[in-house]
TrEMBL record:
Protein EC: 1.-.-.-
Keyword Oxidoreductase included in the entry's annotation: yes
Protein name (database record): LLM class flavin-dependent oxidoreductase
Organism: Actinomadura fibrosa
First-level EC class: oxidoreductase
Domain Luciferase-like, first and last residues per copy: 16-294
Length: 323
């Protein structure tokens, strides 16, 4: 089972513009045998959230082997050519370590910030990923879309990976699963996807017809995670900062169908997470593998958790990885 570490990019009043903690975690995850570090995207948060693409570049320059993934970039906010060029160059600079994961976005405030009508998000997403994929794989592209037009466009330098970096897409509804199968190479679940729902959704995703040029149908399960000598120690380290994060989510996701899942009790949260002793965490990871997951991305540090606690969890998961 490949593991990813979801890095905490939230800033605070004493941490601008530093990413020192994220770099320290990424380096430790690399040593511990994690397959990826994974970055998310947020806007309009106080006291701040580090921008995803520059942060990815910063971490790429300070690591050597670990994969660099996003889960995910809000594709409707970007001009497809700018995004294709930037991500290709990150793949070049990192020596071919990029996996580009995307999402539709859900916060009305963020769409207003970028001047993008939220009703256009699906059309913009599909146009963006379609053009990005063509720019990554074709010598020259002429395209006249609803939002973007290019004439004899090409990228130089091209991404290192051949035929291109892998694409992930996140979401939970059938339309997202179908779109992921058609346009991408992997599906990233929601962090709050219920374990009981996962087997059916994995089966549904893999049943959809793959689009031309796609590179597989991997499943990446996103989960809260904390590994400690005992399950009680894991809970003591994670519960308070995670509850603070979930309280914030109830506001951010007020327009989302899954907002209610952030008001659940600890037992319900733990039941869909990888939290506990090394043995318990290994057992939970084996369970996800049996469901059909190819990898698990762990969020071990909600905002407010001390760096030392996060590092201890990463190191402990390294022991789980090594067996």
């Amino acid at each position: 089972m490949r593991l990813g570490l979801y890095l905490n990019l939230y800033g605070d009043a004493a941490d601008r513009p530093s990413l020192d903690d994220a770099v320290e975690q990424a380096r430790l995850a690399e040593q511990a045998g994690f397959a990826w570090v994974v970055l998310g995207e947020r806007h309009l948060h106080r006291p701040g959230y580090h921008e995803i693409l520059t942060s990815l570049t910063w971490i790429a320059a300070r690591t050597e082997r670990i994969g660099l993934a996003t889960a995910g970039i809000v594709a409707p906010f970007y001009h497809p050519v700018v995004l294709a060029q930037t991500l290709a160059h990150i793949d070049v600079l990192s020596g071919g370590r990029l996996t580009a994961g995307f999402v539709l976005g859900y916060r009305p405030e963020e769409f207003a910030l970028f001047g993008v009508p939220q009703r256009e998000r699906v059309a913009r997403f599909e146009e963006c990923l379609g053009l990005l994929t063509r720019l990554w794989t074709e010598d020259e592209v002429t395209f006249k879309g609803r939002f973007t037009q290019v004439e004899e466009a090409f990228l130089a330098p091209r991404a290192v990976q051949a035929p291109r970096p892998r694409l992930w897409n996140g979401g939970r509804v059938p339309a997202v699963l179908e779109r992921t199968a058609r346009m991408c190479d992997g599906w990233t679940t929601s962090f709050n996807e219920l374990d009981s729902d996962l087997p059916g959704k994995i089966e549904e995703y893999r049943a959809y017809e793959r689009g031309p040029g796609t590179l597989g149908a991997e499943v990446i399960v996103c989960r809260e995670g904390y590994c400690a000598p005992t399950s009680q120690e894991a809970r003591e380290a994670l519960e308070a900062p995670l509850r603070d994060l979930y309280e914030a989510y109830t506001g951010w996701k007020r327009t989302s169908a899954d907002a209610g899942r952030y008001a659940q009790g600890w037992d319900e949260i733990a039941a869909r997470s990888v939290i506990g002793s090394p043995g318990q965490c290994a057992e939970r990871l084996e369970r996800y593998a049996a469901m059909g997951a190819d990898g698990v991305v762990l969020r071990v540090q909600p905002p407010g958790m001390p760096q030392a606690d996060a590092l201890r969890a990463i190191e402990a998961f390294g022991h789980v990885i090594s067996g």
